[in-house]
Fold this sequence. Notes:
Elements lengths: L7 E7 L9 E2 L11 E6 L9 E10 L2 E8 L3 H12 L4 E12 L2 E13 L20 E2 L3 E9 L1 E2 L9 H17 L10 H9 L6 H6 L3 H20 L13 E2 L4 H4 L6 H14 L2 H8 L8 E3 L4 E3 L33 H9 L1 E3 L4 E7 L22 E7 L2 E10 H6 L5 H22 L28 E8 L9 H14 L10 E4 L1 H8 L13 H8 L4 E3 L7 E4 L2 E10 L4 E4 L7 E7 L4 E14 L5 E8 L1
Parallel strand pairs: 2-7, 3-7, 14-23, 18-26, 19-20
Antiparallel strand pairs: 1-5, 1-10, 3-4, 4-5, 6-7, 6-8, 6-9, 11-13, 12-13, 15-16, 17-25, 19-22, 21-22, 22-26, 23-25, 24-25
Helix pairs in contact: 7-8, 9-11
Amino acid sequence: MSVTGYDFCGWATKNDLKCADGRVIRHGAFTANDGKKVPLVWNHQHKSPDCVLGHAILENRDDGVFAYGFFNNTPAGRDAKEQVKHGDIESLSIWANNLQQMGSDVLHGVIREVSLVLSGANPGAFIESVAHSSEPIEEWEDEGIFYTGEEISLEHSEPIQMTEENEDEEQKTSEEKETSEEKEELAHSNDKGEEEMAEAKEGKTVQDVLDTMNEEQKTVMYALIGQAIEDAKSGKINDNTEDEEMKHNIFEGTAADQGNFLSHSDIQSIFTTAKKTGSLRDAFEAYTDGGELAHSIDTTGMDVAVGESTYGFNDPDMLFPEYRSVNGVQPEFISRRQEWVDVIIRGVHRTPFSRIKTTYANITEDEARAKGYIKGNQKVPEVFSTLKRTTDPCTIYKLQKMDRDDIIDITDFDVVAWIKSEMRMMLDEEIARAILIGDGRLPDSNDKIPEDHIRPIATDVPLYTIKFGVVGEKDANGILTTATVKQFMDDCVRARKAYKGSGNPVMFTTEDVMTEMLLLKDDIGHPLYASKEAIATALRVSRIVTVEPMEGHQITIGSAQKDLLAVIVNLNDYNVGADKGGAVNLFDDFDIDFNKYSYLIETRCSGAMTKPFAAISMYLDAQ
């Protein structure tokens, strides 16, 4: 693009620079504005035509959007032109809307105007009033203000008669123009501060804390420090006299009028000393030549007062940036490992009825065998027994209540959806536990899931679950000895002789047992098994699943309590039944009197083994 006759030029915005709030303007975000003319405005003020200073021609480049500015002949335009020419104003900003964003990346937008802004207003680039979105790509009608922090360059459309003085000025302006496109460090990026904080090995230095502050917080801090230092220098220490006004509201703009502020050189001197000494308080004490610097903050009016008894800030935390979540806006659940839950819930056989009956005829006895016949003898009829078992359903539920005011006030995330996800997760875990080993509650507990309605596989009657004891012991730390682990693996293979379930079963065991099997070594110290899959093959099971609630779980064998080591079963031989309406349902209710919501998730189902000798419980028979 060839543009001539412009009054100045400079970068309106640059690509691929991280803003302070984490957003990044990506390449080509404003390609729609290439070659377009937009208004040139003072400080994004849109309420009056007097704020329009001229127009700007935009050029889309690889590095961002470059602007060529033309001032109008209004008094405001002429004043702005003189201020830019004199170097009083050196920064540009854009106002854009129709923003489109993917994650933190700004992919598209339309620049509506370019503004001249004060360079000191915000040295770090940022975007204001851009809605957050969790969707992959979403377009909305919103707006943003983008600051680059780049200096602008002047250009003259007609030759100017040069004097000795303005020749130097023109040479300086030309040099600024040549270097304006080569600058790589822009105020858009906040990466430097983040890298410094990431490199800090222990605690935070004074500079680390300062780098986390935004300009508003720094302004408040400088005003507080400046007020105290100026008062300390002039001897205005609080002596409780009525004639001296010792309080100045930092938000009323009076502090600057009275000279109560710190210059950049003052601040630099203080923080340089603080870096060397490691104490911000000592640095202020040294700066005031007597240690009379003190601040107290009136929490009712945010006024600054000078005191006599302490050093530094009484409450410096007010100047620190807000805490930011590193694991998402909604709290992360601390829960037991849930992988085994999905294996059980998905693996069991389901029926659309809840009252389950199983009937069998035992033809393994000798009386049921076919017999040979000898002429003249009487034929004997066969005899076999029939077996029947029925299982009725029970209700399993979770109930949660929450005040409606709290639901409305929590705006960062959908707290109701978060609660409901927890309720479903914990309901599934409880059903899976009851199916495998029982819920573990005492028989007389009002909350116990009845074991004659959801029958645990590990403790089911011998007709369905074979109990196999492993002779062995634990060491002083409660870990199975190497000899016991080997014996356990041998017995698992031997127990398959009695298994009559469907197909190749799954082994459910504890993490401790799994670890000890993986640690087994041969005589020269090489691992016997390279992976869980290798162990599963050796044990003749399809896979091994570790179950956290099985840690320390005991079952009753005779009258003794034995440590449960593993359960081997094909879950297709376990049936879970629920009638219509008994499946998992979620209910909401609102109590008008107490302004509370109640959330209930429940199911009514039954569960039982349906094939004899289809499960094996391995337990430690300690000697």
